[in-house]
Design a protein that fits this description.
The structure is a single chain. Helix content is 37%, strand content 0%. With 91 residues, it is mostly helical. About 5% of the residues have low confidence.
Length: 91
């Protein structure tokens, strides 16, 4: 008979990059409501390639993540935010 496999317990660990993200107060506590017209509050939640970051890296619940994604999609649609990093904003 085969011996039962040892199951490793999954533990949550924080990487160094996530620890540096915790230094910014806007990233520790997301706003109560995301507004697509307020670009300054949306930009910290995007990666360098303008992708929406995962809720785990920002410690957000699913409701806030849905609000964020909807606000970012609306801002992209009316060209307040670029879709990718290769699309630059003209100033």
């Amino acid at each position: 008979m085969a011996a039962p496999k040892n199951k490793k317990s999954k533990s949550f660990s924080i990487s160094k990059s996530e620890l540096t993200r915790l230094d910014y107060p806007i990233l520790r506590e997301p706003p109560k409501m995301f507004d697509y017209k307020d670009i300054a509050s949306l930009v910290p939640f995007l990666s360098e390639t303008k992708k929406i970051l995962s809720p785990k890296s920002r410690f957000m619940d699913s409701k806030k993540q849905r609000q964020l994604s909807l606000a970012v999609k609306r801002a992209r649609f009316i060209a307040l935010l670029p879709y990718t990093d290769s699309h630059s904003l003209q100033q």
